[in-house]
Target: Amino acid/amide ABC transporter membrane protein 2, HAAT family
Amino acid sequence: MKPSPRVLVAAAVCAAALAAPLLLSEAQVSVYVLLLLAACVVTGLSMLMGYAGQVSLGQASFFMVGGYTAALITTHGRPSWLGLAAAPLVAAALAALIGVPLLRLRGHQLAFATLAVQLILLNLVGQQEWTGGDIGLQGVPRLEIAGYEFATDLSYAYLALAALGLIALITRNIVASRPGRGLRALATSEVAAASSGVPVATYKLAVFSLSAGFAGLAGGIYAFYIGYVAPGSFPVLLSFEYVVMVVVGGAGTVYGALAGATVITLLLQLLNNVGTMEGMPAAAPTVLSYAVYGLLLILIVLFMPRGLVPSATGWWERRAARGAPASDEPDAAPVRDLARTSP
Model:
């Protein structure tokens, strides 16, 4: 039996992801780790935006909570694996706590409310002695699990890849489950979903907490990989980056999150290289990032409103439908009509 194109694409992506750390230089592996961590955060945000229909401009705050949780537990003499395990749990618990009042808001009101949460957390973290203040927590020990110490970039690359694989698996299982069908109905219309018996408020809070947990897990790995955490490591711009990654890749899809994280991370690396060239002002990387974000969003909204992956998938399906041979079977015409009317 010939494998489907989806299976072939998934196998190719997995093979490339596994081989990449072995083929890249040390500096490139560092970028690869950050790319994978961004994909972990964006996968949860993509589910939140694509299914629950909620836009969060403060996702980096949960990334920060995960990083600080892991760093605080480890620097106080506790096992590093405990810090990593607690990072997503604390982030998800915080999201569940603040999500009860926040998720009563909608649209741009919710987006600005989540942005305000990040600003408040950044201010609090920067003023507390037990968090290290503006300097942050330095000297975070390396992660150690079952006697194995993650001491190299290569080891963290595969750790981040394993975390992304786990997050993608959880996301796909949720989407394919009965609650996932409720989420898809919720994404279409909250009123229709509620009238069909979907617990809208519960599902929205659950997805919000789950996406925060994903961000917390990525933040925990980030803290161990970098070796320190500080308020400056989690700027407001980082939350906008995550939203841009979702929009570029395509909300509501795992592959969209991967594509968006890859495109934006590599683009940011290029802009940083350009912005730090001799003769460029100190604010050049930030200015270039904002300019490119705006340009990308305009181009995506105009030409690919569903994002790169859904648009490419739709184009391929329409192309395959046009190239399919004619058939005299009774059900051939309805199939062709359905292909022509599919989005």
